[in-house]
Amino acid sequence: MATTATAPAFAPTESYGGESGLWSWLTTVDHKRIGTLYLFTSLFFFLVGGLEAGVIRAQLAGPNQHLVSAETYNQLFTMHGTTMIFLAVMPLSAAFFNFLIPLQIGARDVAFPRLNAFSYWVFLFGGLFMNASWLIGAAPNGGWFGYAPLTTLPYSPGLNIDFWVIGLQILGVSSLAAAFNFITTIINMRAPGMNLMRMPMFTWNAFVVQFLLVLAFPVITIALVFLQFDRFFGTNFYTVAAGADPLLWQHLFWIFGHPEVYILILPAFGLVSEILPTFSRKPIFGYPVMVYATSLIAFLGFGVWAHHMFAVGMGPIADSVFSLTTMLIAIPTGVKIFNWIFTMWGGSIRFTTAMKYAIALVGLFTIGGISGVMHSSPPADLQQTDTYFIVAHFHYVLFGGSMMGIFGGIYYYYPKITGRLMSESLGSVNFWLTFVGMNLTFFPMHFSGLLGMPRRVYTYDAGQGWDTFNMMSTVGTGVLMLGVLVFVINFLKSYRDGEVAGNDPWGAPSLEWSIPSPPPEYNFARIPHVTSRYPLWDLKSPGLSAEVPHSEHGDRRIDVDVARTHVANGHGAWGGSEPKQAAEAGAHIEHSTGKTALELGIPMPNPTIKPLICALGMLVMFSGLLFIHKDRMPLALATIIGGALLMVVSLYAWVLTPLEDPH
Amino acid sequence: MPVTSRPRRRLAAALPALLALFLAACSTAAYPNSIFTRHTEFNREVGVLFQIMIWLGTFVFVFVEALLLYALWRFRRKSDDERPEHVHGNTTLEILWTAIPAVILAVIAVPTVRTIVTTQAAAKADALQVQVIGHQWWWEFKYPQYGVTTANELYLPIGRTVNFSLKTIDVLHSFWIPQLGGKRDLISNHENFLWFTPDSAGVGAWNGFCGEYCGTSHTNMRFRTFTVTAADFESWAKHQASSAVFAAPTTAAPTPGAVVGSATSAPAAAPATLASVSVPPASATTDAPSTAVGSTGYVFPQDKIPAHAVPGTPIPAGLAYNESLRGDADRGRQLLTAGQGGCLGCHMIKGNPSMLGVVGPNLTHVASRATIAAGLFPNDTRHLARWIKNARAMKPGVTMPTLGRGEYDPVMKATLPQGLTDEQIADIVAYLQALK
Predict the structure, then answer these.
(1) SS3 helix, strand, coil % of chain B, rounded to 5?
(2) What is the H or E stretch that residue A221 is in?
(3) Which of A285, A359, A378 sits opposite B112 (nearest CB)?
């Protein structure tokens, strides 16, 4: 264990130097607390989505089973997809964005702390709203892709699709607000000396993802507004009886939907790009190429959407073009895989749980990538699309990729968030169960798909050659759920009795590890001066990071300390001697002062309930739409107007309240 | 804490082996819907693409995973004092692993584009035209060159190119026969095309599915395709185009439980004659469950339908029907004509002037079909009677109303006070089973 023994422990309730009551959480504008709220909420939704998957797999364990009805099954798979994408993986990434971006760039908070709180509350309300549909037995049932005209009023007259449309609109507001916030934060609030090419890889990936969100979400918003107008106000955007072309929805949806895939995977890529160098004791291989590859993936990601639509009959030209752009996107993705492997190559690899998950991402995402190339070929895709082969493919991408990276990220950053390490022995059990369960669940789906099993079927007939593979998948899901259970136990147990972490339990290179765990509410008592990509390695092992580009030219101009000039010959210090060196280097490593921001004279934003009220007003306003379909117009109008009033009034009060006390 | 990476390594070794084994096995009878069967030029073209992609994919997989596992083993931490050299990149290597994948992709791209062009070219002018119309949740098939309208069962002549024109009457569906070709979506307000030639299919039965999620019973939107000889096809089509065989009242009811298509012999190639339609189906009294009769045109022999094409959907619990009842076909016809059960509102029986509906499947030759309810149940008394009694219990969300007296309608959420008795249903079944 490389745990530093010097740092004192902080019980989680004392985290972030603030108060700990319920009110403090409802009014918090601290990015770390908001990150923690995101983490807990999205893990909860992850478990909900997992249980939905469990019922799905139980139903499909054998042929002609009727554990749940067709209608319930359709709701389950719709909600499983919607939950995992919008309520689990995206907000899990948001948890890391919130917690890490300010810490990694050496800032004290995000650019708009209250907007950040608003984003969280909107997300929470959107998730609760969507799931409230279960209570009245009308959960969304049109698939996470909601293809028109099935989702239009004539074919889905119930409230199911209303919950889905409104829920997604609410969640979209949350994502967009957060994206603008993070873009502003990363552009404006980097510590002195941290130029773009010195940003940690996670922040780079997060930065790119925010642009994807800003560009992709307006498209789904428009698609949903059309659907909303069709359903509530009788317009004809998707009404086929009025001559509408249902491909309008498909194009709009996938122009959003494909970048969405990168919104889901790039944060995990970022986490892995932090974990692999730390546990290999080697910097990321080809940092600039990784940055360019990430940006290129994001850019090309907007030009491949119609590969989801090869079966709709777009004609040979469109099929060819989208096939080629899709193949093209495999190249930067492959570059990343090789760069990760060569980050480890020549390193000194320590197999912590976080590292195992990161390695699993590299290995498993490769499988998802290969099957992805297989359906970039339209004629072959006509035999694969809408079969279990696709289900296998995107679970290798989203579970083998996103979730593996996120699990790794949780193990890696848990000590920074809580001040305690997660148990490595439980972690090992958790990892191997998840790894085996994941492969046992999803690998057989390649076979059931190629053997002709369509997706989204609530049951299947016997004698089709699918029984064995389905049984394997179901058993695998059981193993996987066991693995997640061990994770939950580890997560909760370590919160109380995990080993005390100290500032930097892993020997990591980036700024967030230079401050106490959990960090004080102001993060950095003194804003650090950054001189390289690996500020902490500069301190601890300057000889080793000598090859990292240290462009002193720009640093001198903005009056930045250059660590190298301070620590001339401290080669080889990984262990316990860093505090001395830190002192020499100009306090790049901070130990807990035990003082609050106020005592230190650091201005911090005041807590406020107004973002929550504002988000609540928005929820009430959107919920009013449901009553239109229940033909209770006065009630609908009252709710919509009441919600809007609440939103506007709280927004007005919010804007008029200063962010900080005068100082 | 070095962790052994053996399970991963073993997995890496096992997967390609498994893949090879699988590729060898996939065309056998154990996997009746495998996409790797090459019964049409479409699947042969796709098969070539798959061949390229699976081998290249396996190569990439083995190479990457082996490299990863080797790196993990070779560079595992042996001592906490290790200070690896910090390497920040290698331009040559990075160019190499940008260029090599590009070459691999080019190898896939060229045949891909070529196959796109060949499979999406216009079908042969003399192709058999079939109009596919998707309904929630069944398939309507029309053969405009033959004047045939049928449902959920396709007959295709071996060796003749068939060109499907695909349309939907409601939501999106996707037409898919895995063993014969790829999917093509049915898009509202669009007409799509798909063609292939079942040249090496042999006489056989193939499962078809709806590939695009289309609502509650998406799962239950299946169909069957029978590939038959050209002569049998002509015989089948000629008969299917004719009016209902049932013309004169009969005194004898079909034996309950008798398999559909009950007749005496199976002269497969015997052409049907329209003149024979007035022959009352007296032969239906026999118990012999045979397959086709000269007078009713070719029907795919029941006993030759492979197991995977015989539906095994269980009957929902609690849906009882007295199977010992013997119905009277003529009484059944009179019931329908009188509007009992409202069948005439949706179904057509060509030759029966009161049965003119177009919403539901055309029933003119319903008894010649092997399945009912879009491939969900075998077309026998047991299932057909219950289907008439309570279709909504048999198939979730179905439009056809619950008709049996005292039955619970899961859509209306009410029990039917009036409706058809089991005796009336037996009569209707007898009539329908006479419609060969």
Answers:
(1) 35, 15, 45
(2) helix A201-233
(3) A378
Q: Distance of CA A137 to CAs A41, A126, A622, Å?
A: 23, 18, 20
The pLDDT assigned to B286 comes to: 34
- CA dist A388 and A60 (Å) reads 12
Gap between the Cα atoms of B364 and B151, Å rounded = 10
Q: How far apart are CA B237 and CA B242, in angstroms?
A: 9
Q: Which helix (H) or strand (E) holds B372?
A: strand B371-372
Contact criterion met (CB < 8 Å) for A337 and B64? yes
B373: tokens are: 């309810």
Strand, helix or coil for residue B151: strand
Rounded Cα distance between A122 and A87, Å, is: 12
What sign for the dihedral angle of Cα A174, A180, A183, A187?
A: negative
Please indicate whether residue A340 is annotated as part of the active site: no
Residue A214 and residue A479: Cα distance in Å, rounded?
38
CB contact under 8 Å between A331 and B102, yes or no, is yes
- What the block records as the tokens of A242 is 């009025």
Residue listed under structure tokens 């130990």: A591
pLDDT one-digit tens code per residue, A510-552? 999 999 989 998 999 888 888 888 888 877 766 655 555 555 5
Q: Is A16 left (phi over 0), alpha (psi -120 to 50) or beta?
A: left
| B 125-184 residues inside an 8 A Cβ radius of A | 136, 170-172, 174, 176, 178-179, 181-184
Judge whether B16 and B156 are in contact, CB under 8 Å. Answer: no
SS3 assignment, position A39: helix
Q: For residue B420, list its beta bridge partners.
A: B404
Tokens for B264?
């005496």
Query: Can you give the pTM of this predicted structure?
Result: 0.90
What percent of chain A has a predicted confidence (pLDDT) above 90? 80
Most B CBs within 10 A among A304, A314, A349, hence the mutation to make, goes to A349
Among B residues 338-367, those touching chain A with beta carbons less than 8 Å apart:
none
Q: Which two tokens stand for residue A301?
A: 């990601």
CB A610 within 8 A of CB A34: no
Contact check, Cβ <8 Å, A331/B219: no
**Is A258 one of the annotated active-site residues of the chain?**
yes
Residues in chain B: 436
CA pair distance A165, A430, nearest whole angstrom: 36
Residue to mutate among B80, B104, B112, with most A CBs inside 10 A, is B112
